[in-house]
Amino acid sequence: RGNFKMGRVIRAQRKGRGSVFTSHTQHRVGAAKLRVLDAAERSHYIKGVVTEIVHDSGRGAPLAKVTFRDPYKYRHQKALFVAAEGLYTGQFVYCGKKANLVVGNVKPLGSMPEGTIICNVEEKAGDRGALARASGDYGIIVSHNVEQGITRIKLPSGSKKVVQSSCRAMIGQVAGGGRTEKPLLKAGRAYHKFRVKRNSWPKVRGVAMNPVEHPHGGGNHQHIGHASTCNRFAPPGQKCGLIAARRTGRLRGTTVVKGEKI
């Protein structure tokens, strides 16, 4: 079919197939989520107790096992929360609209004042937590729009996001902050770090490969040989390097954040 030559399937394409690239979930404790949104949380509050704080394999933040009494049947409900900084075993946590503004409690954004430090924030009401969940992360409530029922929050990345005021969040910042301050120092530590996450280490550079294995491969010196940026709509075997980059190079100077209104 013509003289068009195609190289091998590159690493980024093989990752989509799974096999050795699937996530390592053998020793994971479980999915960390807020309680399922029920009538008790919508209109009042419900009390739980932190029974244990556990390490979750492959996650930088510790998890808290919280036990609630079922509001309808004689039984317990157990939840697995991302632990906020300062949470301890035996602590009572309160979830709901009428809960107090205390670290570890879960409240809807609309019932918290502006400037509150929050974590484990819902993106859509009832999704049980999606934003600011990594170790040491937190968001800040910037402003409320009561008429429209929306709240503007500042995310750990620095970007602002508008969400429904009925979305819940935990008060405080996620525990395990400063984890990245300590350097890994040796390959063995990086090996153990990624062993429990997924097969993503060590990473062979594209320029160190042969031309059949990567668009950056080949040549008598290790060089890319063309622009390192590539099109957003490039085909999978070509899509590597700086994808759809708006700008490249070092970030120089200071960024001025303009005052934003909701």
Topology readout:
Blueprint: H1 11-16, H2 39-43, E1 45-54, E2 63-69, E3 76-82, E4 92-96, E5 106-108, E6 117-119, E7 139-145, E8 150-154, E9 160-164, E10 168-171, H3 187-195, E11 229-230, E12 242-243
Parallel strand pairs: 11-12
Antiparallel strand pairs: 1-2, 1-4, 2-3, 5-10, 6-7, 6-10, 7-8, 8-9
- Poorly predicted runs are none
Question: SSE string, helix = H, strand = E?
Answer: HHEEEEEEEEEEHEE
What topology, given as strand order, has the largest sheet? 5-10-6-7-8-9
Assess the beta-strand content as a share of residues: 15-25%
Radius of gyration: 23 Å
Which class of secondary structure composition applies to the elements?
mainly beta
Largest β sheet strand count, sense and barrel closure: 6 strands, antiparallel
> So what's the overall shape?
globular
Helix amount, in percent? under 10%
Q: Total strand count, please? A: 12
Taking all residues together, what is the mean pLDDT? 93
Number of helices: 3
How far do the termini sit from each other? 57 Å
Structure description:
The protein has 262 residues and is mainly β. 8% of the residues lie in helices and 23% in strands. The chain is built from 3 helices and 12 strands; from the N terminus they run H-H-E-E-E-E-E-E-E-E-E-E-H-E-E. The protein has helices at residues 11-16, 39-43, 187-195; strands spanning 45-54, 63-69, 76-82, 92-96, 106-108, 117-119, 139-145, 150-154, 160-164, 168-171, 229-230, 242-243. The protein has a 6-stranded antiparallel sheet with strand order 5-10-6-7-8-9, with no helix packed on it. The longest helix is centred in the last third of the chain and has 9 residues, at 187-195. It starts with 10 loop residues before the first helix and ends in a 19-residue tail after the last strand. The mean pLDDT is 93.
